[in-house]
């Protein structure tokens, strides 16, 4: 499994990548592997400000639905529309085309408090 060094991670298996004043959020390679074949991604918080660790949407696999948790407080600017047609992008390219939302972080300092790749790797290997 891959855990790019340029991302930050949460204990809930989301990742965040900052690009200027926006950030992309998705689920980790570990999470998509544990979930299995993703059939639907549901995000109804576009335009809302969501607190860190609050649910911003859900991800559905054949047998279950799992909540998606916001890594930092921020406004949901955009939902990845490509997932409407092909939710399996989360499985095949979790850190690229399988991103789930784009946000405007309220406090970029919160990002520094998230896990780096090594710390995240140690959590899933416990």
Key phrases:
126 residues, OB fold (Dihydrolipoamide Acetyltransferase, E2P), six-stranded antiparallel sheet
Structural overview:
The chain is of the alpha+beta class and 126 residues long. The chain has five helices and nine strands. The radius of gyration is 13 Å and the shape is globular. It has one domain (27-121): RNA polymerase II/Efflux pump adaptor protein, barrel-sandwich hybrid domain (OB fold (Dihydrolipoamide Acetyltransferase, E2P)), CATH 2.40.50.100.
Shape: globular
What structural class should be given to the helix and strand makeup? alpha+beta
Poorly predicted runs of 5 or more residues: none
Q: What's the helix-strand series?
A: EEEHEEEEEHHEHH
Could you report the average pLDDT, rounded to the nearest whole number? 96
Distance between the termini: 15 Å
Considering the protein shown, what is the CATH homologous superfamily? RNA polymerase II/Efflux pump adaptor protein, barrel-sandwich hybrid domain
Share of residues in strands = 25-35%
Q: What portion of residues is helical?
A: 10-25%
CATH topology name, in short, is OB fold (Dihydrolipoamide Acetyltransferase, E2P)
The number of domains: 1
User: In total, how many beta strands?
Assistant: 9
Strand order of the largest sheet: 1-2-3-9-8-5
Major β-sheet profile: 6 strands, antiparallel
Number of helices: 5
Task: Evaluate the radius of gyration.
Answer: 13 Å
User: Under the CATH scheme, which class?
Assistant: Mainly Beta
